[in-house]
Amino acid sequence: MINFIYQLLRTARPRQWLKNFSVFAAPVFSGSLFDPDILIPSVQAFFIFSMVSSGAYFVNDIIDVAKDRTHPIKKNRPIASGKISETTAWLVAFILIIGSVILAALYVGSYFTLAIIFYILLQIFYSLYLRNVIILDSLAVATGFVIRVFAGGFAALTSLSSWLILATIGLSLLLAFGKRRSEKTILRRHLKSDQEGDTRKTLRHYPDNLLDSMISMSSTFAIITYSLFAFQVSPQGVSPGLSVVLPSILKSPKWMMLTIPLVIYGVARYLYVIYEREDAESPERVLLGDKPLLLTVVLWSLTILFIVYGIPVLG
After folding, report:
1. Do residue 35 and residue 76 come from a single domain?
2. Residues 132 and 250 in one domain
3. What residues make up the domain containing 248?
4. Residue 254: helix, strand or coil by DSSP?
5. Cα separations (Å) of 20 from 53, 200, 235, 257?
6. Are 82 and 96 within one domain?
7. With contact defined as beta carbons under 8 Å apart, do 128 and 63 qualify?
8. Do residues 46 and 87 make contact, with C-beta atoms less than 8 angstroms apart?
9. Which residues cross the membrane (predicted)?
């Protein structure tokens, strides 16, 4: 029984839940995260998105079971290896997906529920068709990240900065195309060139130069749009308490711009993982496994919290 639960958790991919923290983006940057009326639905949104994303992974693994059995790594997944039957997987997927929609409608709100439904339809369409269409497959993966950010805004009833949306799109595209680049590298290491298409059809049609160009474009786009976002949302002045101890040139600073170097380093470090370590097939595994990148994300998060919530308290 314990082993069965363990195999279910493996298929649910708890590490992937890290992506769902993006639902907190809107309330965090609006400065209202710790308002109970905002925090509670945001936490509920996080858990509901974790449910629906896990359900989508069950469906994906069922559809891909034949291809996964030819993959050097994915062949060890519970469904592909036969540790979980397809019937059981369908039942668990149904419970998670339908349950997430019901919970979203009951506890969060109608717009958030629509976002969940759209996410489900996107994942199903991706598994059945989009994953086999070059470029569209990566755009679909990136769209999943963007939906999470919008869903967080719907749950918290908080508006989103246009620059934050654009920065999210840039980062999402970077992760999606970086994932494809690393998948090609890993398959080349383990399989013969004529076997690559057996595991993911689109990889055979992705030229390395195209992926490199898209990765370069996405990283540049992400850095520029985030920089503009940081400039736009930074406070225009400081409190009287801080102005007493700050020099004149810092009395009306763009505080949020202090986080730009962290974003530049984080993007550069991710590119290093893609091209030098050749290990970015799973973004959440990169985050947890690469200490410099993890430290950068933690430091960025703490800096954001200090600027948005700490500076007003100090004043």
Report:
1. yes
2. no
3. 161-315
4. coil
5. 9, 25, 27, 25
6. yes
7. yes
8. no
9. 21-40, 87-105, 134-154, 160-178, 210-233, 253-272, 293-314
Q: Are residues 189 and 150 in the same domain?
A: no
End-to-end CA distance of the chain: 55
Could you give the 3-state DSSP secondary structure of residue 282?
coil
Contact 99, 51 (CB under 8 A): yes
The reply to whether 181 and 133 lie within a common domain is no
More confident call, 220 vs 187: 220
- Between CA 88 and CA 202 the distance in angstroms is 29
State pLDDT tens for residues 44-103. Answer: 999 999 999 999 999 988 888 877 777 777 777 888 887 888 889 999 999 999 999 999
The count of residues in the chain is 315
Token representation of residue 229: 């976002």
pLDDT tens by residue, 231-271: 887 655 555 555 556 566 555 567 888 899 999 999 999 99
Q: What are the tokens at 268?
A: 């550069």
pLDDT at 201 over 70: no
Cβ–Cβ < 8 Å for 247, 262: no
Tokens of 54: 């896990």
Residues 6+ apart with CB under 8 A from 41: 107, 108, 109, 112, 155, 156, 157
